[in-house]
């Protein structure tokens, strides 16, 4: 340990995080006078000082680390303060109002699959739990019958996806869960016990150890269903700390200043390890870290493979292979003998596997190398041995050796590393700001970018933007240079960080590099850069995003500015228009007005006119439309609108006079209705006033007369002047009414090229056509037919065919 | 059930399965029995993804249509609203929720926005004070819906109107998102070509989104080699023309919606012996049309004039197959015959259906056979159809496009359906690169006087989208385009086509010609023409991760995804399928679009109709 503690660990609150985590010390936590405040110190696992500052807040009951390497300081009043590794304050939360009154007596920080939790017991003997401090939900557990003050000992269990508290009050054990408090008794606990003085739960929450006042150590499953063993430790004074040190085999306790008894329940014995002075034990996945003021030791069961290889006179294949390799390096023929021996038992594969595995568990680099060389040597004699595990172990060892360096200070075992995964390791390095090392590791292990390098860069950049001594320019450039367009680095995230530190300009500069507009926009809005937000939103093409900004702007700005802003963004403007069309018609008008968009304004009035119930107001709205159309230089539309107004007035007049029910009809329909009512004069007037084309009027009148079967009128009409539509339609309307007699009157007027068609019509079965065909005129007719009139030719041909048949 | 989706070159069933999975996941989020309240518009598109049986498996017990007032009673735990993000729908939902609260049994409410949730809508719900009532507010990203084995549609009716009239690019955003989803499933598309403003916009968004997702590199071997984005306004002419393929005609006459067509029932009456024809069905006959039906797949893309022959050939084959039973002597042979029976019966009923449909269409079109039954009506339907077609073809070949057309005049005088008139006038305008001001004003006046002043806005819309326009430059470049791209083929072979022009009996759709030229010899050969068409043309490349470059085998076809922004017609699809099947084309096409359209539905989507109120 490279720390230099003046007073050792005496009178300190100590918290050390598992997985080679950092260590926090609070010296003399009970000192309260303002002149001498307790000192909070944070060290890496190797004893490098990371932070040190006087504790100015209230008295601290407990320290603890979260899974994200954040320090939790639980105060007497129930407030939990969170600091990062470097001692900067992050946030705080409270364990409940009632705690302020009753004070926290004891507290524990625990880890579960849900994250890091905090449990406290208050002066009124009530427990409160928070399972995950990042998603804070406080649960007050039910009362424990007969409990006064703090229980003699307690622990937090995570079972069946539920967090419970196990506590002992004298010899009585209780399990507290959300709703109930259940008394339990561990099977096979000797009856003379009068008090359980200490308890400890294993790393995996599977096993439980209880220490009694009689010096017995009971171990069993955490469910309290099975007992594993019970050992009489002969230790009378209660241990200060009790920690599990391996999954199944043992439990360890600290009680004496100079030695560390280790109970091995499996062999029902206790052995003592000498330790100097005061020390603190940290439970790990596969052992116990013993931290003292001068050194740190890892107490661990020797892994089975290592035992097999290094046991004296071991004949395990791994041991033989190691020996063979050693002889080989000495150029001795014994190497071959050893090899042969392994091969005879066909254990070479196993031997290599053992060497590789053992290398993983070793700490000494030389030993690692020796073992790996032996493995590599053995591998040469195998044909179908997969090199994957060998390669992976080499890689992992290189990484492990790098992080175990005192400078980094993450004393991880191989199994811990496996358990925590590379991602978490990278995170841990990042929290400690070892960015280059983290990136090197990511590249070396070929971690996918967005899990590896990008994440590191993101953290780096977030940290970089907080450097107060650099200019915005410099930081933006530095960030951009390093991060570039690395996949998965969110510039908006970095920018948000910069904004949090009050560097808005920097944030905007950084946001420029962000590819995802969806990410840019909310932050820009937050920074009140609404114009920029709008243009970014438009760029993204995501219309909902544009709407988001537009609605925001609408509420933030005065109307004039708002419209001006929109005007510079045509896409946003048209979207807003759509919105207005559906929701706010009046705003729409204002928008067009502001843009001097007379055409649209006129269209708006046209639409509006149909909403007016009264004719007068309708006309006045239409008049506005006319004005606008004129301004838009759309003569046609202006004229058409004026016509419509004229028509409406006319219709109203006639409706009033004759009750004709014309209002709202089209001009054509009006004339039709007039003709049907026999109001020929009025129809005639419309025809002239509105300059209806002759053709259309003739058709109309023709059909109307035929409809009413006014054949005489029809004939008169046909003679009124030369028909602009020809006389074929006359034949056709007559035939439609089945009046062959009338039809024939007009056939003669039909020009020759249409004659066949005229005859075909009334002929029903083509009789007239036949006649024409028989007359031999078809040749001439055909010649006159336009070439495109295929149907006609067709019909004629068929008519001819039938004619010849006859 | 959706096997026909996986027959094609690209297995579109993957997309459908992905969509179904997401739907199931959402339904499972709302534990317990459920009732779905549908935005009516969505039921059609959803039908292409999931049948009722899937919903039922996930405890959907009731389905309602979204409407104001109180929700119908249903003893369910959850009420789920499936809606498009429209403000007016939010108001209805709010009304539903309010009237619900008064009742005693509390039910959980959920909203599923299709295809995307919208801040604006949630805001509206908040204003209405009901946002808090919803347990789940989620989005169901349904952009591209697999419509057939080679066809994807977004079924977004108003896409053209939004893009070209209202400058609202929401549907383009959805298009880009949909294409990203497609690429996530089928690999990055290495080449992107495009023509038109919207195409450019979509391509830009795609490239942008790709940058946003940078890092999670797609490791799927690309299925598509090329993406071609085409703006509908590059080729305004094609949808205006009457489609002459079998499927196209069904759509023109009866309208196909979401793969279903409703037909007049008379021809489908089962004529069984002993039954009198008294109780003819009155409900329209609803038929699903897709390539799952063997016969339909065979004839859908044929020119209608070739359908009769195909049907009679099929009829012969089927009756021959049924005749085989007489030849079946041994037990084994009989067994084999019986095992084929269901298939044969299905084929026979399919044949019966299509013969009926063909008859229905023939009554209306009757291109070559003079139909005696329609003789007594003066202007028979077939004649009208034929005249209309003649005028269309005149326009397309450039005959008298600069004068007022008498046929159109007559049609207006006869008060034919307005949409028909608009289709023709627009077509004339497009084929003449705009109409002379005098001609244009004449048509407009005629329309306003005959059909009413309220169509002022519609005309205005058509002008805005460029379908109708005054001639600005004296030069009409349509003939150049027509000649260069060979848009008119005099001798279109309808029976055994050798060119795509068969789908319009002479006119080769411009959009498909562009696609065809792109594949060979490339757009560089038609630079001049491309410049005459609106909007930029461009080419983009998307970098593939190393190792995903396809090693093409000799003779293996390339696959192109053609995306029509603003809609595509069945005839265009038929033309692309024809190109895929051509032996020497070396290219297979998958078609995607915002909506399947025809001239009528297209023009209709552009019409504005102020609700006229009589005072």
Automatic annotation (TrEMBL), chain A:
| Subcellular location(s) per record | Late endosome membrane; Lysosome membrane
Q: Which residue ranges does the record assign to the Vps16 N-terminal domain?
A: 2-391
GO biological process terms on file: endosomal transport; intracellular protein transport; vacuole fusion, non-autophagic
- Signal peptide range equals none
Q: Where is the Vps16 C-terminal domain?
A: 489-782
Functional description taken from the UniProt entry: Plays a role in vesicle-mediated protein trafficking to lysosomal compartments including the endocytic membrane transport and autophagic pathways. Believed to act as a core component of the putative HOPS and CORVET endosomal tethering complexes.
Name the chain's protein.
Answer: Vacuolar protein sorting-associated protein 16 homolog
The organism's lineage is: Eukaryota, Metazoa, Chordata, Craniata, Vertebrata
From TrEMBL, chain B:
Any single GO BP term: vesicle-mediated transport
**Pfam families, per this entry?**
Sec1 (PF00995)
Asked if the Swiss-Prot or TrEMBL record annotates the protein with the keyword Nucleotidyltransferase, the reply is no
- Give me the segments passing through the membrane: none
Where does it localize?
A: Cytoplasmic vesicle, Autophagosome; Cytoplasmic vesicle, Clathrin-coated vesicle; Early endosome; Late endosome membrane
The UniProt entry, under InterPro entries, shows:
Sec-1-like_dom1, Sec-1-like_dom3a, Sec1-like, Sec1-like_dom2, Sec1-like_sf, VPS33_dom3b
A GO cellular component annotation here is: early endosome
Q: How does it sit in the membrane?
A: Peripheral membrane protein
Give the record's keywords alphabetically. Answer: Cytoplasmic vesicle, Endosome, Lysosome, Membrane, Protein transport, Transport
Q: Which family does it belong to?
A: Belongs to the STXBP/unc-18/SEC1 family.
Protein function: Plays a role in vesicle-mediated protein trafficking to lysosomal compartments including the endocytic membrane transport and autophagic pathways. Believed to act as a core component of the putative HOPS and CORVET endosomal tethering complexes which are proposed to be involved in the Rab5-to-Rab7 endosome conversion probably implicating MON1A/B, and via binding SNAREs and SNARE complexes to mediate tethering and docking events during SNARE-mediated membrane fusion.
Q: From the Swiss-Prot or TrEMBL record, give the protein name.
A: Vacuolar protein sorting-associated protein 33A
User: Organism classification, top ranks?
Assistant: Eukaryota, Metazoa, Chordata, Craniata, Vertebrata
What gene, per UniProt, encodes this protein?
A: VPS33A
